[in-house]
Write a structure and sequence with these properties.
globular, alpha/beta, eight-stranded parallel sheet, single chain, TIM Barrel
């Protein structure tokens, strides 16, 4: 099982909608990969419909450099969880992770993501159906609660009583989004819950983790934590899983590599340009002229235009 093969204090790139697709995972692989990748989250009901299946399968693409990788899935229909779970092993995944923490209001309105915290019986049925229909290890990613921090006192034990292969806890509530600091002070109590209820479950912490150095600091303070997941930290430094501090030139070259991968994918299938704009700040930040350069990039409509603006900046 993949969870038993990872090193102690392993690192993972958080599943992020519109970010951690196959292209960006390849970029992070080049910069310096984590021990474990996750996909963007895929709607089980989309996969269950003819109309949505193509998009779902695109999200569930596994490339040569991805392994090991976990498929993250979401929804509220247990039968749809069963259907998608039954297909993931043949697609090349090492495990499947149920998203019960996404704070997006559209996802929550549909009953998925963090809304599952409010429907524990349904959450339990989804876990059960997924587990019954795959040989892969089943894990969950969640938050402390939906509206109140104290919800973790019942919600996390509820999940741990399912004896999951792994549990990732984003140390905030859905209501808090990312507007407050992650509640690291709760780690000792969460560890105690895990050790008492399901000691075999790998516990992963998520929220405000910046880079490898920060992981090492947290691992020293909380040695019983099994893994650390970096999400937004990758936007500050795509080399965050390494000890390397990139130069501006290295960041721009990594951006050009991203554009090459984007073009390659766009040749094979419809691949919208607009999401590329999410990544400009990943590569263009913290140096003189970065803000003005991003403004110029935002005006571009093709990857060739982006390359020209970058070339002009480098040659100025």
């Amino acid at each position: 099982m993949i969870w038993n093969e990872l090193p102690k204090h392993f690192t993972a790139l958080a599943p992020m909608e519109g970010v951690t697709d196959s292209v960006f995972r390849a970029v992070i692989e080049k910069a310096g990969r984590p021990d474990l990748f996750f996909t963007e989250f895929t709607n089980v009901s989309s996969f269950a419909s003819e109309k949505g299946r193509h998009d779902a399968l695109d999200r569930l693409t596994v490339t040569e450099t991805d392994a090991p990788i976990i498929a993250q899935i979401w929804g509220k229909n247990p039968e749809h969880f069963a259907l998608l779970a039954s297909k993931l092993e043949e697609l090349g995944f090492s495990g499947l992770d149920l998203n019960m923490g996404c704070p997006d209001r559209h996802v929550n309105k549909a009953g998925g993501g963090a809304a599952m915290i409010k429907t524990p019986e349904l959450a339990s049925e989804c876990i059960k159906k997924a587990r019954e229909n795959t040989n892969l290890p089943v894990s969950v990613k969640t938050r402390l609660g939906f509206s109140f921090i104290d919800e973790y006192k019942t919600w996390l034990p509820f999940l741990l009583n399912h004896h999951l292969a792994a549990l990732t806890v984003h140390l905030r509530t859905r209501k808090e989004m990312s507007k407050v600091e992650a509640h690291y002070e709760l780690i000792p109590e969460i560890l105690k819950m895990r050790d008492e209820i399901s000691p075999e479950t790998k516990l992963i912490i998520n929220g405000d983790i910046r880079d490898k150095k920060h992981v090492e600091e947290l691992a020293k303070k909380y040695p019983e934590i099994d893994g650390f997941m970096i999400g937004r930290g990758v936007f500050g430094n795509p080399f965050c899983f390494t000890d390397h501090t990139p130069t501006n030139e290295e960041l721009i070259n990594l951006f050009l590599y991203h554009l090459d991968l984007y073009d390659e994918k766009a040749k094979k299938a419809r691949y919208p340009f607009e999401p590329l704009k999410h990544f400009y700040k990943v590569y263009i930040n913290s140096f003189d002229g970065a803000s003005d350069l991003r403004v110029k990039l935002m005006e571009c409509k093709t990857t060739d235009e982006l390359r020209k603006v970058l070339a002009d900046f480098q040659n100025a």
